[in-house]
Amino acid sequence: MLWKKILAVAVVTGAMLLPALAEQPQVAMYGYHSEVTVFWDPAYSFSNEIIWMHNVYETLLRYDPFTDQFQPVLAEGYERSEDGLTWTFYLRRGVKFHTGREMNAEAVKGAIERTISLGKGAWYIWDAVESIEVVDDYTVAFHLKYPAPMDLTVAACYSAFIFDPAYDHDWYLQGHDSGTGPYTIERFEGNTLMVLEKFEGYWGGWEGNHFDKVVFKTVPSPSTLRLMVESGQVDIAYQLPVSDIQALKDNPNVRIVHTPSFQNLLALFNTQKPPLDNPLVRRALAYTIPYQDVIQGVLAGYGRQARGVVPYGLWGWSDRVKQYTLSLETAKLLLSEAGYPEGGFKLLLTYVSADENERRVAELWKSQLAKLGIELEVRGMPWDSQWELGQAPDPTKRQDIFLFYWWPDYAHPHSFLSAMFQTEEEIVFNLCYYSNPLYDELITRAAELAGIDRAESINMYVEAQNVLMEDVPGVSIYDMEYVRAVNAKLQGYVDNPAYPHVVWWYNCWRG
Amino acid sequence: MGGRLSYGLRLAGRNPLTLVGLTGVLVLGLIAAVAPWIVPYPQDCRGATDVGEQFQPPSLRHLFGTDELGRDVFSRVIYGARISLVVGIVTIGLALAIGVPLGVIAGYSGGLVDEVIMRVTDTFLSFPSLLLAMAISAMLGPNLRNAMVAIAISWWPWYTRLLRGEAISVKEREYVAAARAMGASWARVVFRHVLPNSMVPVIIQASMDFGGVILTCASLSFLGLGAQPPIPEWGLMISSGRTFFLTSWWIVTFPGIAIFLAVLSFNLLGDGLRELLDPKVRRRMLR
Question: Contact A364/A298 with Cβ under 8 angstroms?
């Protein structure tokens, strides 16, 4: 009788265990250094929340900057008219919003019009749009004021989400969503925790390996985050100090993923204040930056020296653009020509005080300038104060060198070339106070050509960058690589720098 | 004089901790005085960098290792003594220069003048001193000079309070009354008779405050509101090395030890001085 008892117990426990084994939900976790949610409304999301929003909301197209190709998402295909003024998108059929309604041309029009009418976040990417036409249930056409690359616009990282337009701001603030994506909000805690669960009716289906839930958690301390990656609690960690990355390299449980990003560090020169109002002095300074020491010593090799202003990997980058290298001899010659053979002047550099990489770059640069008799005062300031000083009414009261990062609102070189270097009546980001009509003309024409003739547009952007390299209103020092520590078992993860820090969890699984 | 000195030393000898403090302060002063000539890598204290040498652990070549920009931590810690001492002297001097005249005037004059001075003092005292120093430093713009001004501004009220109390009791003494009776001017009475005889507690307090000021300055620099890179200030060194604590412990540990030793020395010395100069304690010690 005993064996019968044992069998019975085994069957019962087995029956209890089996479903537990089978239904164990697969949960992924993303450790992020800062708040995971700043804005709740997809129409004007403009901050960290894109790391989860891109899993809840989708765009018409998705852009792959490495191949310069577009992947169909909510649009299965699109056409551009000969004059570049009409773009027609053919929508995917049978897509449901999480609210239960169907995603169709009417909804796309409504969502984009709501984004434009709110006028917040990155809504200006739709600037070229004159009107949106519902051709039929699954066809939507954009009529433009001037030719613009709408494929890039609809694939933008911000303000291009297609959501159910029937809801307003307050509804989103309560923690609801109205996307079409594979995941939907399960619960959240303030702005430091977001839990997504899978949306059963997702158009892509749930065949194969997928996570059932995804957790986004704020982990402000880098050392805690490092321990969480090492123990496998976190599948992906963003922004660990370089020294921790070096230490994690040899850990078999962790994989280090590094990808060229569209973020670069720039030094903008005050072209309105002596001695940097003299282009010779500015060119001399471009020869004093220890580019290689910065990349090895500050970035531990995770980055590359910038060429021009457009970052490597983004269209508009070209090896036809001039690149400066460290050469104190050349700098000295240029300084002598400008009337400063022994240096003898003082410059003020400002940076964001909490940013250790910026500080180190400034200190390395300072030690080079000291050899030429130039004293660099390095001043760390909160961002608000740094920016305020940069906008002081009297240009001679402003800093001499403004150190900061730039990254694009959408994958377009115009984002880099216009905001910082185009003539500005009121100073916003042209913190070199540069104004060159020839340059302004070049980039305006290049932007207009971008939607019609990409190759010619690139040629003009290259020419514009060479104008900058000649006048040197500023120097881009390096193009960053995004470095992430990833659970070695995580499969399917590809970093796409056009969508900074976004992981499409639907494409990932644990092997 | 000789008799007084040996008497002082004999008293000090009864409290060995005072001697430890005194020795520490003297060593610190000596190091600060000769720092530029004794450090092995003087250029590293003035902002030179060498990326090829970064993150070297302590060795004979680099006693305390090197930091994230390849600078010798030993040289920078030694040089930092000079900065901390200057900060201490300047800040305390500044705080005394504001606090002492106000305190003696308030104490001696009494009445409305006393009321006004003391209510202003109370206003300053109502803020936690580090918070006030942070606010002032942020307002003036962060650098070492402004940090010293900021700390002095948050520090002087203590001296005013202390001196006022002492001046109130001193002004009732007979020698003050005598000076007044002989027709001495107000200023002469205040600054020649009342002030010198009320200074003892303030001097004791000031010597004890040295440690506190050094610590506050390091805190401000740590928060980015004091010394700016590449000045080898201890607090700043800890701040810039903290992200490497798990991998390169020496960058933050040695400046930390330096702050600890400096503050401890000044506190021990201040404690000892209080015992030496306080007649009640002194009598007990000699019994």
Answer: yes
In three-state secondary structure terms, A20 is helix
Structure confidence at residue A4 as a pLDDT band (50, 70, 90): low
Query: Where does the pLDDT of residue A456 fall: very low under 50, low under 70, confident under 90, or very high at 90 and above?
Result: very high
ipTM of the predicted assembly exceeds 0.90: no
Furthest C-alpha separation in chain B: 76
B68 close to A (CB below 8 A): yes
Q: How many domains does chain B fold into?
A: 1
- Exposure string of A462-481, with b = 16+ CB inside 10 Å and e = fewer, is bbbbbebbebbbbbbbbbbb
Query: In the predicted model, what is the mean pLDDT of residues A390-411?
Result: 90
> How far apart, in whole angstroms, are the C-alpha atoms of residue A216 and residue A239?
14
Domains of chain A plus CATH, in order, are 2-53+181-259+484-510 (3.40.190.10), 58-154 (3.90.76.10), 264-480 (3.10.105.10)
Task: Give domain status of residue B60, yes or no.
Answer: no
CA atoms of B114 and B280, how far apart (whole Å): 29
Cβ–Cβ under 8 Å, residues B223 and B141: no
Predicted model pTM:
0.80
CATH number at residue B220: 1.10.3720.10
**Chain A positions touching chain B (beta carbons under 8 Å):** 222-223, 226, 241, 243-244, 246-247, 290, 293, 296-297, 353-354, 356, 359-360, 362-364, 366-367, 370, 377-381
For residue A451, the model assigns a pLDDT of 79
The pLDDT tens digits of the residues spanning B140-196 come to: 888 899 999 999 999 999 999 999 999 998 888 888 889 888 888 888 888 888 888
B contacts of A296 (beta carbons < 8 Å): 51
Residue B188, domain extent:
2-34+85-286
Contact B224 A380 (CB under 8 A): yes
Side-chain half-sphere exposure of A98, counting CA atoms within 13 A: 23
**Would the CB atoms of A297 and B69 count as touching at under 8 Å?**
yes
**Tokens of residue B112, six digits:** 């409305």
Q: Which residues pair with A89 in a beta bridge?
A: A78, A140
Q: What is the DSSP letter of A369?
A: H
Whether B171 is covered by a domain: the verdict is yes
* Any domain includes B233: yes
Spell out which residues of chain B touch residue A226, defining contact as CB-CB under 8 Å: 246
Question: Could you tell me if residue B277 is inside a domain?
Answer: yes
| Contact: B229, A378; criterion CB under 8 Å | yes
Query: Mean per-residue pLDDT for A92-106?
Result: 95
Q: In chain A, what residues touch B243 (CB-CB under 8 Å)?
A: 222, 241, 243, 356
